């Protein structure tokens, strides 16, 4: 296989791993909501800021269909 072909597969694998990590993080954030609110003494409003910040970063990390 040509070197460029290997690079493409490595880039694809890196993107796949990143997408999986972000997907798992997004789901874990929802599951841990009661624990985070209790341990860190977050109100619902403060917790919503955490979720909003994560969703903002998550939306920018997704591949765009316009490309």
Condensed summary:
81% of the residues lie in helices and 0% in strands.
Question: What would your notes on this structure say?
Answer:
- By secondary structure, the protein is mainly alpha-helical.
- The protein has a domain at 15-60.
- The longest helix is centred in the N-terminal third of the chain and has 29 residues, at 3-31.
- The protein is built from three helices and no strands.
- The protein has helices spanning 3-31, 33-39, 44-61.
- 81% of the residues lie in helices and 0% in strands.
- The model has no long low-confidence stretch (mean pLDDT 84).
Low-confidence stretches: none
How much beta, percentage-wise?
under 5%
Given the structure, what is the number of helices?
3
- Nearest-integer average pLDDT: 84
Rg, nearest Å: 17 Å
Distance between the termini: 26 Å
Number of strands: 0
Structural class: mainly alpha
Q: What does the largest sheet look like?
A: none
Shape: elongated
Helix content: over 70%
Order of helices and strands: HHH
Describe the oligomeric state of these chains in a short phrase: single chain
Topology:
Elements: H1 3-31, H2 33-39, H3 44-61
Describe this protein with a few key phrases.
single chain, about 70 residues, mainly alpha, about 0% strand
């Amino acid at each position: 296989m040509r070197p460029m072909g290997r690079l493409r597969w490595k880039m694809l694998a890196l993107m796949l791993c990143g997408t999986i990590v972000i997907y798992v993080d997004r789901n874990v954030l929802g599951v841990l909501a009661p624990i985070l609110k209790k341990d860190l003494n977050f109100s619902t409003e403060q917790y919503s800021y955490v979720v909003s910040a994560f969703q903002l970063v998550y939306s920018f990390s997704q591949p765009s269909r316009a490309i």
